[in-house]
UniProtKB/TrEMBL annotation:
The lineage of its organism: Bacteria, Bacillati, Actinomycetota, Actinomycetes, Micrococcales. Residues 9-324 form the FAD/NAD(P)-binding domain. Keywords: FAD, Flavoprotein, Oxidoreductase. It comes from the Bacteria. InterPro entries: FAD/NAD-bd_sf, FAD/NAD-binding_dom, FMO-like. This is FAD/NAD(P)-binding domain-containing protein. Signal peptide: none annotated.
Length: 458
């Protein structure tokens, strides 16, 4: 950031990773300017405040943020407890955002519309590196303003861009016009959204932890409101991946979730429909008819789309990015987390070097850095922003000394080409096989599943 030393660094998003980025920048003597589209910090997590995290507190808080908080007399939560999303906000993000050091640099109701280089479109190369960025923001007062900054950290997550219900990555025919029959991705079915689900026919679509959480909560609702009917559609031939690694899961709460779901399906409480790729939705007065690619139909009152998320790359259109063509994560990170080959939940530690783009001093971090891969963990994001802040401050040694403090694990394997169940640096050294690298450096919480989608024989 040589030519722009006196300008601030824009941080897009005041989720846990954006706020952690701001804390690290402040420690480095850099000036963060945080833009948050929602009304307060943690606006995306606010949408799933009723869901319990799988990882305990000690892995959910950032060191630099904690240093700021503790200086103001903050009491840390019990490190081994599992917080709800709401507790993550109330006990950590809200107090952090309220600190003068953060609050004075945080603008809420400020939606970033675009990022570019000042006075240059994407095709201009001369003096590009030394040219500041311009961040275009729609502010709470309804005005749109351009902000000139030295660097940009995009921590805007993926919550606002869910994957469509349809197969092929496209909305199903009729999906848009059936929007009033489609809920948010993680509705609070036993709490504030209860009336929309009690006694209704509910179709949950998808095969991840969000689907598992929603299905289990619907089963709780059905105990109280027996007229509630629970349908579950997955694209694959079985739900085995959602049932997960059980006892082999490094996060017991996550393993138990899958086991409970399996029991509910086996008991008939949940009606599972496999190989149900969605082709169409037809909204009627009486409900919605959901059609599969092979001609089957399901009738429901409301559809819950647990189909995952994708990054919003539109706001980055004028930047020069280097993204993996499949995963839409930074090119070097993509193969390490590609859900086609990995479901193990672990990742090689990585920082600024791996997250860099051709447009120098621009970084995508946090959930958005994983692109379409679903396995992101906060602890990974905190290490990303520690390293990125160091890089922006010119401390390349600290940036390159990656310090991810998660348990080391040896149970992950990749099925990219071969399967080998060895503790390995996985694809760090080889993008095609986890067997090639000699040193065990994978860290994280193993799911107990050793392969990605490509191992499914359907
Ligand atoms: C249900 C669920 C459970 C999870 N459980 C765990 C867990 O147990 N452990 C774990 O480590 N991880 C977990 N994760 C994964 C991940 O850690 C979370 O998604 C986390 O919220 C990601 O943090 P983030 O800061 O990257 O993004 P977010 O929390 O999504 O924050 C992004 C912020 O950017 C804002 N924003 C978006 N677009 C713009 C824009 N254009 N301009 C300005 N602001 C914008 C949003 O309003 C939001 O506040 C879970 C995720 C989900 C969905």
């Amino acid at each position: 950031m040589d030519s722009a030393k006196n300008l601030p660094v824009a941080v897009i998003g005041a989720g846990p990773v954006g706020l952690a980025a701001a804390a690290h920048l402040i420690e480095r003597g850099l000036e963060p300017l945080i833009f948050e589209a929602g009304p307060s910090a943690g606006a995306a997590i606010e949408q799933w405040r009723h869901i319990r995290l799988f990882s305990p507190w000690r892995f959910n808080i950032d060191d630099a943020a904690v240093r700021l908080l503790e200086a103001a007399g903050w009491e840390p939560p019990r490190p081994t407890a599992l917080p709800y999303g709401g507790e993550l906000i109330d006990r950590y993000l809200a107090p952090l955002a309220a600190l003068p050091a953060i609050g004075s640099r945080l603008q809420t109701g400020a939606r970033v519309l675009a990022v570019s280089r000042a006075g240059m479109d994407k095709t201009h190369t001369r003096n590009r590196e030394g040219t500041p960025f311009v961040v275009r923001v729609e502010h709470a007062d309804g005005e749109t303003r351009d902000h000139t900054v030295a660097g940009v950290i995009d921590a805007s997550g993926t919550w606002s861009t869910r994957n469509p219900l349809g197969t092929s990555g496209l909305p199903a025919i009729g999906e848009d016009s059936a929007a009033d029959r489609i809920s948010s991705p993680l509705p609070d079915v036993t709490g504030k959204d209860r009336t929309a689900f009690a006694g209704r026919r509910v179709l949950v679509v998808g095969a991840g932890h969000s689907a598992a959480n929603t299905l289990i909560n619907l089963a709780d609702l059905a105990k109280d409101k027996p007229a509630t009917r629970i349908l579950w559609a997955v694209r694959g031939a079985s739900a085995a991946k959602v049932y997960g690694g059980g006892d082999a899961d490094g996060l017991p709460a996550r393993g138990q979730l899958g086991a409970r779901l399996r029991r509910l399906v086996e008991a008939g409480t949940i009606g599972l429909h496999t190989r149900f790729g969605i082709a169409s939705l037809k909204s009627l007065d009486s409900g919605v008819t959901v059609g599969s690619v092979d001609g089957r139909t399901l009738e429901a009152d409301v559809v819950v789309p647990c189909t995952g998320f994708r990054p919003d790359l539109d706001i980055l259109r004028e930047l020069r990015l280097d993204l993996d063509p499949a995963v839409e994560a930074p090119t070097e990170l993509g193969p390490l987390i590609d859900p086609e080959f990995h479901s193990c939940g672990t990742v090689p530690p990585h920082g600024a070097a791996l997250l860099a783009h051709p447009d120098k001093d621009f970084y995508i971090v946090g959930m958005k850095s994983y692109g379409r891969a679903p396995t992101f963990l906060l602890a990974t994001g905190y290490e990303q922003v520690r390293s990125v802040a160091a890089a922006l401050a010119g401390d390349h040694e600290a940036a390159d000394t990656v310090q991810l403090e998660l348990p080391e694990t040896g149970v992950c394997s990749s099925d990219a080409g071969t399967s080998c169940d060895v503790p390995a640096a996985a694809a760090v050294a080889s993008e095609s096989s986890c067997c090639a690298a000699p040193e065990p450096v994978l860290v994280g919480f193993p799911t107990g599943l050793s392969h990605g989608r490509s191992s499914d024989n359907n």
